[in-house]
């Protein structure tokens, strides 16, 4: 069986993706990569705003080619009754709905889960919003930046005493998309075990998805009254793990916080005295003397190139690595051997897009086509799924329903 026809875990699952921008569409991208038929509903005209964000090529963003992969784009004006009725018919044929509008929007259109489940009880209905479908903040607009702040994540990100820092990524949206895809997969498994084949609602909040990353922050405060603070390039309570500048101006990350690893690290940097120092034999002692250890490693790295540092530490079996930018990643043999890039063709030109993880040995995901033009699957979906004739589709176009 060729790679292009190999089975995937979500083959036969139909998903209708409502909403725009990132969280919902990223969940749809994950599902489509692993075999689901994802029909993306977009407003007629310009479609999803991400089509025009950041760097563009002939009017379409490079981002869209990745985010819209494997999806069938259908335009429907959901502000018009006929557009909503067509959306309802598509939902009746679906296994999964993904939407990331403000809570109440889908209900206003008659497309909420309680309404759609009357005619399609098997429906798994995934809802992504800033603060969830219930609670006092549910109606608030919830962009990722705001939700990352309220989740507790931003408080920990940055340097002590300075303004909290955000990653130059919409990480709250992406993490929420992953949570939504996980929730959908769990709901599909549960449905398969249900004698009545009923679906359920998956309620994903951006702030809760980021809250889910906080490790021991809550129990440490509850049990010990400790509020974890920002710690710059280190991790509170784990020493040594930090980033250092080398003589060539490049940065390396060194993680020498295991007891035996720390001993090898100190031997490698020529500090046998610290390797055998009983004060530093365990993590608790190293935390007390973090500044001393960091000064030693900073001095050692400053007098070697990054390549020298990494070679020495690899020989000593000390975890370490470079800080990569995207150019470094594309040039790296390991990234390429692991298949982290896929090449698609756009207007006759090759374009690299990232693979979607995780890797499955027997039923891997794949990119069948890059994100296409707005409404490029109108005729296919409206004709084959809903059974509309060519004349009926043309009438919808004239009415600006599609």
Structural commentary:
The chain has 402 residues and is α/β, with parallel strands linked by helices. The chain folds into 2 domains: 14-213 and 338-398, Rossmann fold, CATH 3.40.50.10540; 241-245 and 251-322, formyl-coa transferase, domain 3, CATH 3.30.1540.10. The protein has helices at residues 23-33, 62-67, 81-92, 105-108, 113-119, 144-150, 171-193, 206-211, 217-224, 259-268, 272-275, 283-288, 290-302, 306-315, 326-331, 333-337, 378-385, 390-398, and strands spanning 14-17, 37-42, 56-57, 60-61, 71-75, 96-99, 124-129, 201-205, 241-245, 251-255, 320-322, 341-346, 349-354. The strands form 4 sheets. It has a 6-stranded parallel sheet, with helices on both faces. A 3-stranded antiparallel sheet has the order 9-10-11, with helices on one face. Strand 1, helix 1 and strand 2 form a beta-alpha-beta unit. Helix 1 (23-33) packs across helix 7.
CATH homologous superfamily caption of the largest domain: Crotonobetainyl-coa:carnitine coa-transferase, domain 1
If classified by CATH, what would the architecture of the largest domain be?
A: 3-Layer(aba) Sandwich
First and last CA, distance: 38 Å
Per the CATH scheme, the topology name of the largest domain is Rossmann fold
Strand order, largest beta sheet? 5-2-1-6-7-8
Helix content: 25-40%
Give the overall shape: elongated
Strand percentage lies at: 5-15%
Number of helices: 18
Q: Are there runs of 5+ residues with pLDDT below 50, and where? A: none
> Which CATH first-tier class of the largest domain would you pick?
Alpha Beta
Count the E strands: 13
User: Which structural class is indicated by helix and strand composition?
Assistant: alpha/beta
CA radius of gyration is 25 Å
Domain count: the total is: 2
Mean pLDDT: 96
């Amino acid at each position: 069986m060729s790679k292009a026809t190999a089975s995937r875990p979500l083959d036969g699952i139909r998903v209708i993706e409502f909403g725009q921008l990132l969280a919902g569409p990223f969940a749809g991208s994950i599902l489509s990569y692993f075999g689901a038929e994802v029909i993306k509903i977009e407003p007629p005209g310009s479609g999803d705003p991400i089509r025009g964000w950041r760097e563009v090529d002939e009017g379409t963003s490079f981002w869209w080619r990745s985010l819209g992969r494997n999806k069938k784009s259908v335009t429907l004006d959901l502000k018009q009754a006929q557009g909503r009725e067509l959306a309802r018919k598509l939902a009746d044929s679906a296994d999964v709905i993904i939407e990331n509008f403000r809570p109440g929007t889908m209900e206003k259109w008659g497309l909420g889960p309680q309404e759609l489940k009357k005619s399609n009880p098997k429906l798994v209905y995934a809802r992504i919003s800033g603060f969830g479908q219930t609670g006092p903040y549910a109606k608030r607009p919830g962009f990722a930046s705001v939700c990352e702040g309220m989740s507790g994540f931003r408080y920990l990100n940055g340097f002590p005493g300075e303004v909290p820092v955000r990653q130059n990524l919409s990480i709250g949206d992406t993490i929420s998309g992953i949570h939504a895809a996980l929730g959908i997969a769990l709901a599909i498994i549960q449905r398969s075990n249900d004698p009545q084949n009923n679906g359920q609602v998956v309620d994903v909040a951006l702030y809760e998805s980021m809250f889910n990353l906080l490790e021991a922050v809550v129990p440490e405060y509850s049990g010990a009254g400790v509020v974890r603070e920002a710690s710059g390039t280190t991790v509170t309570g784990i020493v040594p793990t930090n980033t250092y500048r080398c003589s060539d101006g490049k940065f390396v990350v060194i993680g020498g916080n295991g007891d035996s690893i720390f001993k090898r690290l100190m031997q490698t940097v020529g500090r046998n005295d610290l390797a055998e120092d009983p004060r530093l034999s365990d993590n608790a002692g190293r935390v007390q003397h973090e500044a001393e250890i960091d000064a030693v490693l900073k001095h050692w790295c400053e007098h070697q190139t990054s390549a020298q540092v990494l070679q020495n530490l690899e020989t000593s079996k000390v975890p370490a690595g470079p800080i990569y930018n995207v150019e470094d990643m594309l040039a790296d043999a390991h990234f390429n051997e692991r298949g982290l890039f896929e090449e698609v063709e756009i207007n006759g030109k090759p374009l690299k897009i990232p693979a979607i993880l995780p890797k499955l040995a027997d039923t891997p995901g794949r990119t069948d086509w890059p994100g296409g033009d707005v409404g490029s699957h109108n005729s296919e979906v409206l004709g084959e799924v809903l059974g509309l004739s060519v004349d009926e589709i043309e009438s919808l176009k004239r009415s600006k329903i599609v």
